């Protein structure tokens, strides 16, 4: 593979098997669906409305203390991490409620209160594991399979939680992402009223925000696919080293309905994280910036402070001055292609412009292919512009200035 630049680390893509050996294939653990229908406080079930929730595990919990919201919660997931049930089938969950109550019953893909609580747990996880980058990659790889030319859900791919299934995690592009799933599975187990599709996107957006990035205008309520047969075929995500990187990026991202500006802005997510030869085949085994972690040490980052979300990615891939920093062929294309270059130059100069475009593009990416219930989605923020906490994670990056 000829690379015009020493920073491209052309270790040939390896077959990513190591991480897959860690997948627990609890194939036999297909859950028995508990089809639940509930009458609130003794209200007549005869007047109930029903809706189907394709949540991963089906059972229903009811809180008498909050009669205004009928909670469609799935409980009873195994607390054992060994039950990653990557291949477990989900069952449609029946949820019924009485029309007789003052407030309209809520029956959505995810429960708003649980979404908020799950967000708090994700923040805790980020504090202890510094797993911001891999959670961003998890969200992107669930949604990035979207094909705008296919109308049917879930055949069209996108943010539908299909990435939890082993068959999709085994796609070469997803090497290593089983580790992200392991990190958030306990949160899924705790809040089974949150769909996988939502949890992946919630984790990603929260990671960007927590790393000092922009607040992303997210909505929730994504419905999960229920079986591995609904996973997209392999090959919808971009390659890092195709023969013609700019053409390849356009082919893949245009298929998702995204444009040049969005391609460049979203590539800026590589301000976070590292590439590992044993996963993707790209990057050095370790550099001065990664040899001490945090998290599992090693890999090659695009930026020195790879837990800090800022515009340094654009500065670094433009300058290509540091042998220890990664520039993939698809990264380099952003300053080589005349149309991409306009945006890449702007973002290298102007972090505010990058943050604004990134936040919009990330929100759009997170919605690709998703089926929302309710159709308008669920907003869990209070609308107030969050004041980002003073960023601390970056100080754990080694080798910084
Ligand atoms: C433009 C096409 C893209 C290509 C070819 C690409 C390729 C890659 C590769 C090869 C890795 C290294 C994976 C590993 O070895 O563990 C990686 C990591 C990463 N990618 Fe991308 N990527 C692209 C776009 C994106 C987008 C759109 C996002 C998010 C919006 C993103 C977010 C990330 C993050 C955060 C990591 C670091 C993961 C970690 O440290 O574990 N990438 N990408």
From TrEMBL:
Q: What spans are recorded as compositionally biased (Basic and acidic residues)?
A: 275-291
The subcellular localization recorded is: Plastid, Chloroplast
**Looking at the keywords, is Oxidoreductase present?**
yes
Q: Which InterPro entries match?
A: Ccp1-like, Haem_peroxidase, Haem_peroxidase_sf, Peroxidase_I, Peroxidases_heam-ligand_BS
Compositional bias, Low complexity, is annotated for 18-28
UniProt keywords (A-Z) are: Calcium, Chloroplast, Heme, Hydrogen peroxide, Iron, Metal-binding, Oxidoreductase, Peroxidase, Plastid, Potassium, Transit peptide
List each copy of the Plant heme peroxidase family profile domain by range.
135-379
Q: Which domain of life is it from?
A: Eukaryota
Question: What residue spans carry the region label Disordered?
Answer: 1-28, 269-300
Q: Pfam families of this UniProt entry? A: peroxidase
**EC numbers:** 1.11.1.11
User: Which function does this protein serve?
Assistant: Plays a key role in hydrogen peroxide removal.
User: What is this protein's name?
Assistant: L-ascorbate peroxidase
């Amino acid at each position: 593979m000829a690379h015009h630049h020493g920073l491209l680390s052309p270790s040939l893509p390896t077959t990513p098997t190591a991480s897959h050996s860690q997948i627990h294939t609890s194939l036999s653990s297909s859950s028995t669906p508990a089809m639940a229908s509930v009458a609130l406080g003794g209200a007549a079930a005869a007047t109930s409305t029903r809706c189907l929730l394709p949540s991963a595990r089906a059972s229903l919990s009811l809180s008498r203390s909050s009669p205004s919201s009928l909670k469609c919660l799935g409980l009873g997931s195994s607390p054992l991490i060994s039950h990653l049930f990557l291949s477990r089938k989900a069952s449609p969950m029946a949820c019924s409620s009485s029309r007789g109550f003052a407030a309209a019953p809520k029956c959505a893909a995810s429960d708003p209160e649980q979404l908020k609580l799950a967000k708090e747990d994700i923040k805790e996880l980020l504090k202890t594991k510094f797993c911001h980058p891999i959670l961003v990659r998890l969200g992107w790889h669930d949604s990035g399979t979207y094909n705008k030319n296919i109308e049917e859900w879930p055949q069209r791919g996108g943010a539908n939680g299909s990435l939890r299934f082993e068959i999709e995690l085994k796609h070469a592009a997803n090497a290593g992402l089983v580790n992200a799933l392991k990190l958030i599975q306990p949160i899924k187990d705790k809040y089974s009223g949150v769909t996988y599709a939502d949890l992946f996107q919630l984790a990603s957006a929260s990671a960007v925000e927590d790393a000092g990035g922009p607040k992303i205008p997210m909505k929730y309520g994504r419905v999960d696919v229920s079986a591995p047969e609904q996973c997209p075929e392999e090959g919808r995500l971009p390659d890092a080293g195709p023969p013609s990187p700019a053409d390849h990026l356009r082919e893949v991202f245009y298929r998702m309905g995204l444009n040049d500006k969005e391609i460049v802005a979203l590539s800026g997510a590589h301000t976070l994280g590292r590439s590992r030869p044993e996963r993707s085949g790209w990057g050095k085994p370790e550099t001065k910036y990664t040899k001490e972690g945090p998290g599992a040490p090693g890999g090659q980052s695009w930026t020195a402070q790879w837990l800090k979300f800022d515009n340094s990615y654009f500065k670094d891939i433009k300058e290509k001055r540091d042998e220890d920093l990664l520039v993939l062929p698809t990264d380099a294309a952003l300053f080589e292609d005349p149309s991409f270059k306009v945006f890449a130059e702007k973002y290298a100069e102007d972090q505010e412009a990058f943050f604004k475009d990134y936040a919009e593009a990330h929100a759009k990416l997170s919605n690709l292919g998703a089926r929302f219930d309710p159709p308008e989605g669920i907003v869990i923020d209070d609308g107030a512009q969050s004041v980002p906490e003073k960023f601390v994670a970056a100080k754990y990056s080694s080798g910084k200035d």
